[in-house]
Amino acid sequence: MKKNMESRHTVDMLFVVALLFLFAMGALMLIALGSSIYKRGVDTLTKSYDKRTAYAYITEKLRQYDEEGSITTDIFNQSGAIRIDTTIDDIPYVTYLYDYDGALMELFARADVGELPPEAGQKIMDIDDFVVATKGNGILEITITLKDGENLTFITAKRSGK
C-alpha cells in the first residue's frame, strides 16, 4: 500500500511538471509570434512614414512659396536641387532643397551671402538620392530614393498665376 502511494505521488508530480512545461512553451511561442507580428508592423509603418514625410515636406514647401518665378530647379553641391526665392521685409532669401551625405537637406539663407557649404543646411530625413527634373509649364518631377532602395516619384505643379 505504501509503495502504491509513493509511485502515485511521483506520477502526480511529473504530470504537474509536464503541464507547467507545456504552459511555459505555449507562452514563449505566443511571445515569439507576437514579437514577429509587431516587428512587421513597425517596419511597415516606418516605410510608410518615410514615404509620407518626403512627399509631404517637399510639396508643402513648394505650396508655401508658390509665387510666379520663385520656384526653380538649380545645381547645388554638384547635384540637382530645388531653389525657392522669397523676399521678407525687402530682403531677398533663398531656400535650397537638396541631397547631401545621404540626407534630404534644407538650406535657408540670405540671397546676398554668397555660396554656402552644403553641410550648413538642416537635415530633414535620410535618403539615398534626390533627383529633380523640370517638365515644362511649372511642372516638376521629383524622384527620391529612400534608404531601403525604394523609389518615390511624384509630379507637382506650381499653381501661382500672379
Summarize this, please?
This protein is an alpha+beta fold and 162 residues long. It is built from 1 helix and 8 strands; from the N terminus they run αββββββββ.
Structural class: alpha+beta
Domain module count: 1
Number of strands: 8
In which range does the helix fraction lie?
25-40%
What is the approximate shape?
rod-shaped
Sheet with most strands: 5 strands, antiparallel
Number of helices: 1
Order of helices and strands: HEEEEEEEE
Uncertain parts:
none
The average pLDDT score comes to: 86
Distance between the termini: 105 Å
% residues in beta strands: 35-45%
Strand order of the largest sheet: 1-2-3-4-5
Rg over CA atoms: 30 Å
Structure, explained:
The mean pLDDT is 86. With 162 residues, the protein is an alpha+beta fold. It has one domain. It is rod-shaped and about 95 Å long. Strand 3 and strand 4 form a beta hairpin. 39% of the residues lie in helices and 38% in strands. The strands form 2 sheets. The protein has a 5-stranded antiparallel sheet with strand order 1-2-3-4-5, with helices on one face. The chain has a 3-stranded antiparallel sheet with strand order 6-7-8, covered by helices on one side.
Blueprint (SSEs and pairs):
Blueprint lengths: L1 H63 L6 E6 L2 E10 L2 E10 L2 E8 L11 E5 L2 E8 L2 E7 L5 E7 L5
Distinctive features:
162 residues, alpha+beta, three-stranded antiparallel beta sheet
